[in-house]
Amino acid sequence: MAAVLQYPHPVSPGPGEVLEIAPGILWTRIPLPFRLDHVNVYLIEDDGGWAVVDTGIADDRTREVWRSLLSGPLAGKRLTRLIVTHFHPDHIGLAGWLCEEYGLALLTSQTTYLGCINISLSPGALEAKPYRDFYLTHGMSDETASLVSTQGHNYLRMVSPLPLTFTRLVAGDVLSLGGRKFDVLSGDGHAPEQIMLYCADDNIFLAADQVLAKITPNVSVWAIEPEGDPLGLYLRSLKAIERSVSPGALVLPGHQLPFRGLHLRCREIAAHHEERCALVLDACRNQPRSVADIVPVMFTRKLDPHQMSFAFSEAHAHVNRMLKQGELVWAESKGDVRQFIAADS
């Protein structure tokens, strides 16, 4: 089914380059020091300059990329404002620096702004004992829990201090950028109240990380909300996107290539999560399991602490969803470790 997706630009912009992906919309890529090695940034023509959508992480390399863009292909044009889609550091990391350096207003959701302050800009926020105990309670070894709760969260700290004020974007708003009007949508599951923009007149959809062409966005349970159901929220958001956005829209995602075939891709991702839940159910049919037991069922390759943090949290999202749906039930704990089993066992 994936072959039905269409890629209007099979080649992405190189470092310090921009491509016009649609009239009045530029696409550039900012490098990341991870397995997923880039984030897409878009610039939308806006009152004699460019409105920026997302930033890259806060490090010297990213600052230099921005300086080279502004002295090269963007030279002579001012930046007008900054729109941040969600609080993950590859999207909000340099927001504070860009706003201060270039006098920009920050536009984002309230959850994004406060979530960034609470998690990324609060030293040691995720290293507190209750959060580390959360991993232990769900079967992670003491050594791995120590690594994940320290090294595994380094990524979350790659954020410059935010401006002291921001302009709130809320689903249902209409945002005017230059001559275009964008409906403000928000999605959940990957990040709470993630902002997306849809220009119905031109059929252009800035999807952030909610829908990606070839990979599935991470959907995670975090220690701060241990009983949450982010996977349920994510699947609900996919259905809302299908109701709100044309199937033929040009999709400008936060990673990988722009594409067409939005509704198809939403259904592919939903089917992928159904398959993952089936794997979990099979693994739990004959014996109780912990979340840590489920990680190698869903992720078969070797994981570093950064990857383990996301893998464990995504496995937990599937478990919580299935507990809520009644497909799994809690079993007798194994010592201090919580376990669950298939309801039909």
What fraction of the residues are assigned to beta strands by DSSP?
A: 15-25%
Sheet of most strands? 7 strands, mixed
Which second-level CATH architecture applies?
Answer: 4-Layer Sandwich
Total helices: the number is 10
Strands across the major sheet, in which order?
Answer: 1-2-3-4-5-6-7
* Secondary-structure content class: alpha/beta
The rounded Rg comes to: 20 Å
Low-confidence stretches: none
State the CATH class: Alpha Beta
SSE string:
EEEEHEHHEHHHEEEEEHEHHHEE
CATH superfamily: Ribonuclease Z/Hydroxyacylglutathione hydrolase-like
Nearest-integer average pLDDT: 93
CATH topology: Metallo-beta-lactamase, Chain A
Share of residues in helices: 25-40%
**Distance N terminus to C terminus?**
34 Å
Shape: globular
How many domains make up the coordinates? Answer: 1
DSSP E strands, number: 14
What does this structure look like?
The chain has 345 residues and is α/β, with parallel strands linked by helices. It has one domain: Metallo-beta-lactamase, Chain A, CATH 3.60.15. The protein has ten helices and 14 strands. The protein has a seven-stranded mixed β-sheet with strand order 1-2-3-4-5-6-7. Strands 8-9-10-11-12 form a five-stranded mixed β-sheet. A two-stranded antiparallel ribbon has the order 13-14. A hairpin with a 4-residue loop joins strand 10 and strand 11. Helix 7 runs antiparallel to helix 8 and helix 9 crosses helix 10. The chain is globular. The two termini are 34 Å apart. The model has no long low-confidence stretch (mean pLDDT 93).
